[in-house]
Amino acid sequence: MQITFLGATGTVTGSKYLLSFDKTNILVDCGLFQGPKELRLRNWSPLPFNPEILDAVILTHAHIDHTGYLPLLVKSGFNKPIYCTYGTTDLCEILLRDSAHLQEEDAKHANMQHYSKHRPALPLYTVEDAENALKLFQPQAYNKVIKLHQNLSVQLIPAGHIVGSSFVRIQYQDTSLLFTGDLGRLHDPVMKKPTEVQQVDYLVTESTYGDRLHEKEPPKLTLKNIINKTIHRGGSVIIPAFAVGRSQILLHYLSELRKENAIPNVPIYLDSPMAINATQILYNHIEDLRLTQAQCQELCDVATYVNAVDESIELDLDKTPKIILSASGMASGGRIVFHIRAFASDPRNTLLFTGYQAEETLGAEILAGKKFIEAHGKIIPINAQVEAIRSTSAHADYGEILGWLKQFQQPPKKTFVTHGEPEAALSLKQKIETQLGWQCYVPEYGQKEEL
């Protein structure tokens, strides 16, 4: 068995792992590179293999850095099964269509503004390509043994990151290999904890937070305090939130605070069609959650859903106190940019960030203390209070990763640390070696390993 690391090396994004077994080839995850331009350009480079050689694609979960290259893979000739959980299939129906729509919009905008060197600028892939990819999905139950051929099988094991997320366990003859994908939190308020794994021959683990620990202050308490201070001074709380995962955690906290009468009874709006769809999908996959059916219903009911654009515009015209959750989580696009433009100049309001803010995004600029921002061609002063809750991540920190690894009854022969910035991956590697005594490696892009 040979593994080739084709993404999530030296970076968090672009997860792709090519596995070759005699005459069989499978790809575990098929993600887009995101972030700085030099990374995004990799999406336009041909893969170092012909997609037609693949017998299957296996997905750990639905996030675009793990699935967003699928439409291009299919466009390039792949036409075999895509295996994942039912929850991942449901979320991919939203996320891949949205990603394709954004690709088309970016190309359209580049042609209108004439800032692309290509004439005309073309999208990386289209909505039609995304639809063709979705036709290949074959959802599977958790823990079911999926036989790819006589000596090769796959299992999808609950990972606790988002709805549908799974570890991918490969069994080839007498050799086993496990991909963590994105490892969930031990005490996530919504998702069940990651499944304990006792033994595997080879391990590929993520390291997003391999060099840090999450803040200890309970995020629900921080959220309560920020809301109460803001509403008390007559302001509104504007929350950029990732549509899948983060929005649902925040809705859960808000439903609990509302039930406890711990925050004022002001309107709460979820203004993101994708987040609304993801919230409804959450309700359909209660088996993934630590919430009861009643708690899940409360989460779904706490906010008024805003689908129509004109309803979203009306929110910005009404300056009475309210709470708005909207995407994107980094304020790099979507309706949240309009809300920031409308509310940022009033010192009574609060802009509350609840997730990672990548370099060069609007969210990163605001969090860094920039006093003026440009949003849709207008210069906007940032007079609103700027706050951040840094403990709502759905990724395990290094303490939680090490705690999960310590449950293994014997060490893997080799552990590969991926899906992290260089400092995070190297830091986790050193911690695993020091605390567990395991053989640990940080692979480079394109590196091949015989297992």
From TrEMBL:
Which part of the chain is the Beta-Casp domain? Answer: 247-366
Lineage: superkingdom: Bacteria
InterPro entries per the record?
Beta_Casp, MBL, Metallo-B-lactamas, RibonucZ/Hydroxyglut_hydro, RMMBL
Q: Which Pfam families match?
A: Beta-Casp (PF10996), Lactamase_B_6 (PF16661), RMMBL (PF07521)
Record keywords: Hydrolase included? yes
Against SMART domains, the record matches this protein to: Beta-Casp, Lactamase_B
What name has this protein been given in UniProt?
A: Metallo-beta lactamase family transporter protein
Q: Which GO terms describe its molecular function?
A: hydrolase activity; RNA endonuclease activity
Query: What EC number(s) would the UniProt record show?
Result: 3.1.-.-
Q: Identify the residues that the record assigns to the Metallo-beta-lactamase domain, covering every copy.
A: 13-242
Q: What class of enzyme is it?
A: hydrolase
The organism of origin for this protein: Legionella steigerwaltii
Keywords, sorted A to Z: Hydrolase
